[in-house]
Amino acid sequence: MYKKTDKLTGWYLFVGMVSLFIGGSLGPLQKLEHVGINLYRALNSIGLASYYQGLTIHAVLNALVWTTFFIVGFFTFIIPRSLEKELVWPKVQWLSFILMVIGLVMAAIPILMNLATVLFTFYPPLMASPFFYIGLVLVVVGSWVGGYGFYATLVSWRKEHKGEKTPFIALAANITMVMWQIATLGVATELLVFVIPWSFGLIEGTDPQLNRTFFWFTGHPLVYFWLLPAYISWYAMIPKQVGGKMFSEPLARLVFWLFLAMSIPVGLHHQFVDPGVPEGWKVVHFALTFGLFIPSMITAFSVIASMEIGGRANGGTGLFSWIRKLPWGDPSFTAQNLAMILFAFGGIGGLTNASYNLNLAIHNTMWVPGHFHLTVGSAVTLTFFGITYWLVPKLANKPLFSRKMGLWQAWTWFIGMVLMSNGLHVIGLNFSVPRRTMLGVAPYASSTWQPQLIEAAIGGIILGISGLLYYANMIGTVAQKKQLEEPIEMPVAEQYHEEKIPAWLDNWKPWFAITVLLILVAYGPILFDMLSNIQLTSPGFKPW
Amino acid sequence: MDEDKKKYKVPSGTIAILIIYIILIIALWGSAYLTLLSRGVTG
Known about the structure:
The structure holds two protein chains of two kinds.
Chain A: H1 3-25, H2 27-34, H3 40-43, H4 51-83, H5 90-112, H6 130-160, H7 168-199, H8 208-236, H9 238-241, H10 249-262, H11 279-291, H12 293-313, H13 331-354, H14 359-362, H15 367-396, H16 403-431, H17 450-479, H18 508-532
Helix pairs in contact in A: 1-4, 1-5, 2-17, 4-5, 4-6, 4-7, 4-15, 5-6, 6-7, 7-8, 7-10, 8-15, 8-18, 10-12, 10-18, 13-15, 13-16, 15-16, 15-17, 16-17
Chain B: H1 2-7, H2 12-38
């Protein structure tokens, strides 16, 4: 059973991992450039034109490609197992993968030819080759198509199991995909209606403010598209891995429904300094963003409580001693637990970002990539690494090449990220050092920035070493001849309490209605206003 | 009910960790706010 979809999962992971390897390799170069070691010149000979082209490759491949391929592949693996049912449209799932690969290739070629050096937010009036945008659209559409296959499987399961509650993992994965599909309507509108015709020359100018608003309609929920698959592992798999139980399944379900409803109508908190957005709407989105603190804190409580159950079941006592009884020798657990710890600090930084007045202190400074690397670079990526420590051996039917190497990888990632993100946060907050800037040649660069820039560079190098350990372990796992002695099963936690799940936590209609309503309230009037006053006047720029 | 209490224990360690976390949030968030205030008023 599941052989065909397992093969597909393997392909998704392969493309995602290769993308992360290429994108991740350029990360340490940025940090070294900031301390005056410019390795980009050495890469000129292989076609890397500038720091900014490298930054675009780094961000697009890591933040957009690695995550999306991993998530769709992960869902392809977990949904059938959660429902104990094969995916009903296997050809559609393959079509999804093919579309995503075509999109990736189509976007990658202009990036590599320096025709799309527009960074991962591709803010107009920066202009790229139209094929870059079309490629991104195909990656997103491919992920939608994958989602249609998941929904069809869920609908089919529900017909066969009338009156039964949807298993948590399948429900949570489908909620994530639905949230993603609604959220990406923003960037789809931006690209298909405005940016692609503009980049083909069919429209003379563009409206940067309107495009940024459509982008952030998608941009913030994109963070939750990355995080929710990690939450699925933290809620439903980690408890099993630590010998514990899921603290409360109804609470876990509530959290995913809340993220569906609340992830999208918050995007304007990324535009607090945009002059064209009325202040009243910024305040509305600021308040809604703080609403996300509720499911986030419920998650913190539930996940830690589930681990505490495991730690105590393993003989742990006292207020904190149970922590030592968690399986710290298991790289899958250790990577994910360290990801959670880093995310705790990412959450605090996120509260600062979302605070209307505090945002002024850190907006567009190094603080932001410091925060970003604690979320997508740690909570998400380190968790995904942790998942692959059991998933890749399962798919390859081979044991993990080296548990010790896996542990070293997890800890070096943790240490490297602490150093790098701390350095970036501090210089962003204290000195307003700009982000996305080639600081090594900036005439205004100050020697007072050096301690933190050096700290960040050391962190970046350690992260690079950690990445190499990860890939050595993955290649070693797949390439070895040794076979698994016992099959690996997807870890699925049991409930701690025998709780009845209320019907409203298994019903899509009210949550879908709340989601649409909140989006209409938070975005309807502001988008109507912007569209009514649209100014398609800005020409395109290609500065790098 | 008593049996439930024996079987399902309150996650006291979790509550302690979250209290520490809340204190940390206030401290770090507060320090960012103080940095903003230390820059003085503009305009």
